[in-house]
Amino acid sequence: MATITFQTHDGKTFTVEAANGTTVMENAIKNAVPGIEAECGGACACATCHVYVGEQWKDQAGDVDPMEEDMLDFAYDIRPTSRLSCQVKITDELDGAVFEIPERQA
Ligand code: FES
Description:
With 106 residues, the protein is of the alpha+beta class. The protein is 13% helix and 21% strand. The protein contains 2 helices and 5 strands, in the order E-E-H-E-H-E-E. The structure holds FE2/S2 (inorganic) cluster (FES).
């Protein structure tokens, strides 16, 4: 279990309890966090679940696999900390992590 926070581009924050093994995207949808569209339902095929992982949480968020890397090319305003939130699994290590939501999705 981890407590994670989503921050929208205009500064609103949503702090939610996330179960281990679920994805960051699933927790955003379940809690009606605005700005995560997740059109493909988590299949790594749409890039509309794009988030920025806080710099200090990058390692805990796990590696970016090649499929995610390819799909990130379709996301809006990519940065070094960009991730597709459907590909980031919750673990205890992510307790306290902050995920910023871009101004818009692809
Ligand atoms: Fe489609 Fe993440 S929900 S790529």
